[in-house]
């Protein structure tokens, strides 16, 4: 049995969170955790 992956584009709200978090010095992993996304 294979596990299928689904991919989803970032929406405007997620992009804003990334921009603000990155500007505040948050790590990629911390931002991904906040968005419940993979850090890769």
Automatic annotation (TrEMBL):
Start and end residues of each Transposase IS30-like HTH domain: 7-40
Alphabetical list of Pfam families matching this protein: HTH_38
Protein name (database record): Helix-turn-helix domain-containing protein
Species name: Vandammella animalimorsus
Domain of life: Bacteria
């Amino acid at each position: 049995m294979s596990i299928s992956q689904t991919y989803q584009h970032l929406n405007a709200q997620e992009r804003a969170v990334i921009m603000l978090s990155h500007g505040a010095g948050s790590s990629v992993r911390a931002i991904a955790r906040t968005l419940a996304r993979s850090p890769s």
